[in-house]
Write a structure and sequence with these properties.
The chain is an alpha/beta fold. It contains nine helices and nine strands.
C-alpha cells in the first residue's frame, strides 16, 4: 500500500495498491494536476520511488509548478526579490527530492520507460489521458490505450495514476459537483479503472480568485459499486497547494519564513 501523505484520503482509499489503475479527474484548471503533484512530493519524502510522466509539459515546467507548491507562491514572470528567493528555495528543494519526471507523448514510450525501470518504480503518474488519446489516436483507440495502461499496472505490479478530465456535463447541473459518469471516456474508464478521484472547488465556479486557503472536495468512488466517499482538503489557489486538515504537511513551507 502506498500512501498519499493526506490522512483523510488514505483512510477512505486504503492507499494505492499494486496492479491497480486509478484516475484523478476534474474540470479543466480546477487542480487535478496540482493534486497529483502534491501527492508526488509527499510520496518522494516518504521514500517511495515515484515517477511522473507528462504528455504535454516539459520537465522544467513540471518542476516549476512543484517549486510553486513548495514555496507557496505562484510561479510567475514578474516577482519581487523576496518572492524570487522563496521560489528559488522551492526549486532547489524540488531538485533535492528523489523524483523521476519525464515527458513522453505516446503509449509506446511509456512502455519503454517501464521496461527500462522495471523493479525500480513504486508508483507511476501519467498526465493526461486526453492528450495521450489525441496523440495516439491514429494507431490506437481510446479503449486500447486505457486497456494497455491497466495491463502495465498488472505486468509491472505498480499502481498507475492517470490524470483525466470531467466533461461539461457537470457544469450543466445546479450543484456542479462531478460524478463518475461525467468523465470523458467514462464508459472506457469504468472497464479498467479501479478507483476514481473527483475534484471540486466551489470558488472556481463562483469566479472568486482566492489567495487564502479554501476547501477542496475530493470524492473517491469505485465505478464498479457506485460507492461515493468524500473528504475535504484545504487548497491554496495561488500556489496550487493542498493541505491536510488532519495531519501536518510533510514538506516545509518556505513562504512562512518571511
Amino acid at each position: 500500500m502506498i500512501t498519499t501523505g493526506y490522512k483523510e484520503i488514505d483512510i477512505i482509499n486504503k492507499g494505492f495498491q499494486k496492479g491497480k489503475l486509478y484516475t484523478i479527474a476534474s474540470r479543466p484548471a480546477l487542480g487535478k494536476t496540482n493534486l497529483a503533484l502534491n501527492m508526488l512530493i509527499n510520496m518522494s519524502i516518504l521514500k517511495y520511488r515515484a515517477h511522473y510522466i507528462s504528455t504535454t509539459d516539459s520537465v522544467i515546467d513540471v518542476k516549476k509548478r512543484m517549486a510553486s507548491i513548495l514555496s507557496g507562491f505562484r510561479y510567475k514572470i514578474k516577482r519581487t526579490d523576496i518572492e524570487n528567493d522563496i521560489l528559488k528555495k522551492g526549486l532547489n528543494e524540488v531538485n533535492t527530492l528523489d523524483l523521476q519526471i519525464y515527458n513522453y507523448d505516446d503509449i509506446i514510450s511509456i512502455k519503454h520507460h517501464l521496461d527500462r525501470f522495471d523493479k525500480e518504480i513504486d508508483i507511476l503518474f501519467i498526465d493526461d489521458l486526453n492528450s495521450l488519446i489525441d496523440i495516439n489516436n491514429e494507431r490506437l483507440t481510446p479503449d486500447e490505450i486505457v486497456c494497455a495502461l491497466k495491463s502495465y499496472s498488472i505486468e509491472y505490479n505498480i499502481p498507475i495514476i492517470l490524470i483525466s478530465c470531467v466533461s461539461r456535463r457537470a457544469d450543466r447541473r445546479k450543484d456542479k459537483i462531478p460524478r463518475s459518469g461525467d468523465l470523458n471516456y467514462a464508459s472506457i474508464l469504468f472497464k479498467y479503472v479501479d478507483k476514481i478521484f473527483l475534484l471540486y472547488r466551489n470558488h472556481y465556479y463562483e469566479g472568486i480568485p482566492t489567495i487564502d486557503k479554501e476547501s477542496a472536495l475530493v470524492i473517491v468512488t469505485d465505478p464498479k459499486v457506485t460507492d461515493y466517499r468524500s473528504v475535504y482538503l484545504e487548497y491554496n489557489n495561488q500556489a496550487g497547494r493542498f493541505y491536510s486538515k488532519l495531519a501536518e504537511q510533510l514538506y516545509l513551507d518556505y513562504s512562512m519564513n518571511y
